[in-house]
Specification:
The protein has 182 residues and is mostly beta strands. The chain has no helices and eleven strands.
Amino acid sequence: MLAATPWAHAEKADRNKPINLEADTATVDDAKKISIYEGNVILTQGTLQIRANKLVVTEDAEGFQLGTAYGNLASFRQKREGYDEYIEGYALRIEYDQKKDLVQLFSQARMKRGLDEAHGNYISYDGKTEFFQVIGGKETATANNPRGRVRTVIQPKQKSAAPATGAATLKPAENIANPREE
């Protein structure tokens, strides 16, 4: 149930951009380092966009943030570093651990990169190691696979264009003997 598909790193410049948050309500407790945003939540930071019904953000002692987005479905979208394409994720709950650079999607999870996509009950993506894991769930369980099945669609890779120098001319080898018959 593991897939080693390179979903690749998110846009690095986003980390240095300001975070903009919109919500119907916001509760911020600086002493406890927790913020809760509810109602049509939209977070943007550079190319990153998170949409949710509720977003809970906590900060650890080192200043790293852990965000949990809830929704029906919560979503994120971010441009890939060095590519003109986006990575997107959808789930009932999405967790992002800034310190570990780890994204986890829980329940009705789906991730897309270009035209490639993966569906399962749980998806995790480690941005540091580019390790990607999809696990099924009871919704897709069968008698032969009680943990459930996953589904992925991986598009064929574009072949690089042939060199513009023209076709190569093949010549027979002159110093090779014919194989002997036995």
